[in-house]
Design brief:
4-stranded mixed beta sheet, 4 strands, alpha+beta
């Protein structure tokens, strides 16, 4: 269960600028790398930051919300200090990004238990289904500016 107390008061979280949304995702997952590139394309404001779970900050944020940074099957989207996790994070991010991101809202037709089940199946098998990729090696300098250390 995701903790609702603020990470902002957690001394184990390295200091970072959270004035804009932050997506914490697996930088080694090809599907997550694709998701990060989609955020980069859809976020016309350039505000959404991306934090690989493999960084000290990403791992600390995952641990704060009782998610395992060593088995990053969860996706975390922080906005205004509030966490959104897994499929709900995808839906929330799509809604926040607007434009084509709203298409993710179509997935709300499925009941939440089914969405959660589907998300977990994909997340647990993401390397086998989509392979590995290094999000941090993407050459786009504008994309690199979004990455939190």
């Amino acid at each position: 269960m995701v903790q609702l107390h603020s990470y902002r008061n957690d001394p184990t979280i390295p200091e970072f600028d959270d004035s804009a949304p932050v997506a914490v995702m697996d930088a080694e997952c090809a599907l997550c790398s694709w998701g990060a590139r989609m955020i980069h394309r859809l976020d016309r404001t350039g505000a959404v930051r991306i934090c690989p779970v493999q960084t000290d900050l990403g791992a600390a944020l995952m641990r704060h919300f009782d998610l395992d940074p060593d088995d990053p099957a969860s996706w975390l989207f922080l906005h205004n200090g509030r966490p959104h996790v897994d499929f709900e994070a995808v839906l929330y991010a799509g809604q926040h990004l607007g434009g084509w991101g709203y298409l993710a809202s179509v997935l709300r037709i499925f009941p939440r238990p089914l969405r959660n089940w589907l998300y977990q199946r994909m997340a647990r098998n993401r390397y086998a289904m989509f392979g590995r990729s290094d999000m941090c090696a993407l050459p786009d300098p504008d994309f690199q500016k979004r990455l939190l250390p």
